[in-house]
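Sequence design from tokenized structure. All designs in this work follow the same two-part layout: the structure record, then the generated sequence. An example of the structure record is given first.
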């Protein structure tokens, strides 16, 4: 939703866009030659100044900070050799510490003394030729307590520049001097002095460590022996011994083994009992021959084979012999004997399974008794275990401290000799005598002087142009801007030319159908398009245009609602002689809901909300409630048409700060419109359309008498 600010044109300040760029361009053209000459003169002056300066040379040495104790990873370690020192992690803070150490005054003072810089005039101002000007300057700035070493030390610190190479462990040492050979010697001397200082510091640290560690190690050796002897004696006294790979107590090991054996015995006993019960059940049912244990017997297969042979013979002879025949009787007797032998053998196997189950049960009982005895022994030895663990803890702590001190002493022994100390500083490149001067840089000085002079001149010319005429037209326009237009009064009708000039800003439409089509096109198929219909003068009647407009927009397939904004309570519905009913006033006052006031507009699919009983009493100036009402309608309808008297709509327009999308001005023939684009306001972001058509047919307003607020609308959904 677009927002317009009333009377925005009458109060707009002067804009920076009013600057006359053409005038500034002309000023730059006029002074181009002067600016070029000034830049050339400044460059020449810089060239002469650099030529008069004494050249300086800068020598550069490069070193790398390595981790202490790191040996060659490709060289195998010899057996029996001393262990390497503890590797120190080198981070950027550690490298920065080395840089600050190399810039220390003590190291610089050693360089001054070794190179005898106090005798060189460049580093000792007292050795320079004392001209009259220099004597005057020294008289006011000299420090009587400053010695030659102090002056040389200060000059040396200024000449040296030490910094870390980004994202590396490398450090660059630079030294500047008028003597190239001196610059190289000073840079190399700083590196060598710092490297020697680190080596000597490591040697002194190791000697101090040896002197402190030796007595402590001798004392701890005796304490460790006593603690371990106490542990061994207590073990023998309490009969607590360890065994196995994990060195656990024998009682605990026995308890664990018995628990495992008991578990296995219980499982075996349960399995044997199950087998015995199952075998006894199958044997009683006459199927003992099918048991797996029975089939494993060596005798039963032969008995079963003999029985099968006897049954076959009986079957073969029964065809020719009678049952009473001696041969048949013999075979039947043999078959009965074989069955008795088979049953007896099955019974023996079943009884064997039952005996095996009993043996398993007895073994389980024995293991359970042994486990209970082992538990009692573990419980009884619990206090001794606690004392033993305390003694072992003391012995272990003393042993760990003893081994730690021994490791430190061994490391100190390996670094006791200065030649065995691993250096922390490794020289990558020594400083060489420079052949090119480092300062002054003539080309850069000339370019910077010329560019700076040119930029300064451009700034001066632009500022002068701004204050002498570049904004003249804008200032004149600001002075000539008219004052705010006062409220219009009744007077004679203006001439036709003046009316045309006032009304030429907004497009004119003479047909309600064209007006409806124009508004639908402007809405671009989006919901909540707000249109305010007002007259061009305060006293003109609005007529029935809003109702006809709602009809036409509804016929175009859009959901439309007509809002009758009449603070005095006499809206378009009241003009049609309809009785007073609930409307906008009651919704704003909280006495009604949308379902109570939204009604269908007769003759179309549009809806309408009447003015209500009295909008003034409902606080028509409550901006928050009005915006909430309109926002709710925006969600439910495609078009919202606001209609009312001129004064009421003007107050509403100010209250909602111009939050509408289009304004329709109903033109009054032969009447002077109010000042401004819409409702007396100058608007720039609002679509204003003038309606110049003939008043619609009579009887349109009369149709509003059929409006019944609270009736169910035929289309759309009332907002919550």
């Amino acid at each position: 939703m677009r927002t317009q600010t009333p009377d925005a044109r009458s109060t707009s300040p002067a804009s920076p866009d009013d600057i006359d760029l053409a005038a500034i361009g002309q000023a730059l053209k006029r002074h181009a030659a002067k600016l070029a000459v000034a830049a050339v003169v400044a460059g020449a002056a810089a060239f002469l100044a650099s030529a008069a300066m004494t050249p300086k040379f800068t020598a550069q040495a490069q070193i790398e900070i390595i981790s202490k104790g790191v040996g060659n990873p490709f060289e195998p370690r010899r057996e029996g050799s001393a262990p390497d020192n503890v590797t120190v992690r080198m981070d950027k803070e550690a490298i920065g510490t080395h840089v600050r150490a190399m810039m220390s005054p003590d190291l610089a003072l050693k360089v001054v003394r070794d190179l005898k810089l106090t005798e060189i005039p460049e580093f000792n101002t007292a050795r320079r030729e004392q001209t009259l000007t220099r004597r005057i300057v020294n008289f006011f700035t000299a420090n009587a307590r400053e010695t030659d070493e102090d002056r040389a030390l200060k000059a040396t610190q200024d000449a040296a520049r030490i910094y870390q190479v980004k994202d590396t462990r490398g450090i660059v040492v630079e030294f500047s001097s008028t003597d190239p050979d001196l610059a190289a010697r000073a840079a190399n001397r700083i590196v060598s002095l710092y490297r020697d200082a680190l080596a000597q510091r490591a040697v002194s640290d190791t000697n101090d460590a040896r002197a402190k560690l030796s007595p402590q190690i001798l004392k701890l050796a005796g304490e460790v022996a006593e603690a371990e002897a106490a542990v061994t004696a207590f073990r023998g006294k309490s009969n607590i011994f360890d065994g196995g790979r994990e060195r656990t107590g024998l009682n605990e090991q026995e308890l664990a083994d018995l628990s495992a054996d008991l578990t296995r015995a219980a499982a075996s006993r349960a399995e044997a009992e199950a087998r015995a019960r199952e075998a006894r059940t199958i044997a009683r049912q006459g199927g003992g021959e099918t048991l797996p244990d029975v089939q494993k017997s060596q005798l039963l297969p032969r008995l079963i084979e003999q029985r099968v042979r006897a049954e076959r013979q009986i079957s073969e002879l029964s065809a020719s012999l009678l049952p009473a025949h001696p041969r048949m009787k013999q075979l039947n007797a043999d078959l009965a004997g074989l069955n008795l032998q088979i049953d007896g053998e099955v019974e023996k196997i079943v009884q064997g399974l039952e005996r095996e189950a009993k043996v398993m049960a007895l073994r389980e009982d024995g293991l359970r008794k042994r486990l209970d005895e082992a538990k009692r022994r573990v419980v009884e030895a619990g206090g001794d275990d606690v004392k033993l663990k305390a003694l072992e803890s003391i012995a272990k702590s003393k042993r760990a401290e003893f081994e730690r001190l021994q490791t430190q002493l061994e490391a100190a022994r390996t670094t006791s000799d200065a030649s065995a100390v691993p250096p922390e500083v490794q020289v990558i490149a020594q400083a060489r005598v420079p052949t090119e001067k480092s300062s002054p840089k003539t080309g850069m000085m000339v370019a910077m002087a010329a560019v700076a002079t040119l930029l300064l001149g451009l700034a001066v010319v632009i500022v002068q142009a701004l204050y002498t005429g570049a904004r003249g037209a804008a200032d004149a326009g600001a002075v000539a801007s008219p004052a705010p237009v006062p409220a219009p009064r009744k007077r004679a009708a203006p001439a036709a030319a003046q009316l045309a000039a006032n009304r030429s800003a907004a497009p004119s439409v003479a047909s309600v159908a064209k007006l409806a089509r124009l508004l639908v096109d402007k809405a671009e198929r989006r919901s909540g398009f707000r249109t305010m219909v007002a007259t061009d003068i305060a006293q003109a009647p609005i007529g029935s245009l809003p109702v006809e407009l709602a009809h036409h927009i509804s016929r175009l397939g859009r959901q439309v609602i007509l809002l009758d904004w009449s603070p005095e309570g006499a809206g378009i519905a009241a003009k049609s002689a309809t009785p007073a009913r609930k409307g906008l006033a009651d919704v704003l006052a909280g006495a009604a809901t949308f379902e109570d006031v939204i009604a269908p507009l007769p003759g179309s699919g549009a809806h309408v909300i009447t003015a209500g009983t009295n909008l003034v009493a409902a606080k028509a100036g409550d901006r928050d409630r009005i915006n909430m009402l309109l926002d709710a309608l925006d969600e439910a309808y495609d078009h919202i048409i606001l209609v009312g008297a001129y004064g009421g709509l003007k107050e509403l327009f100010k209250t909602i700060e111009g939050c509408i999308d289009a304004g329709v001005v109903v033109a009054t023939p032969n009447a002077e419109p109010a000042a401004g684009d819409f409702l007396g306001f100058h608007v720039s972001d609002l679509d204003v359309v003038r309606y110049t058509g003939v008043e619609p047919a009579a009887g349109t307003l009369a149709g509003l008498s059929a409006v019944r607020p609270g009736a169910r609308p035929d289309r759309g959904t009332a907002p919550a």
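Residues 1-17, 70-88, 470-504, 697-703 have pLDDT under 50 and may be disordered. We note this feature because it recurs in several other targets discussed in the main text.
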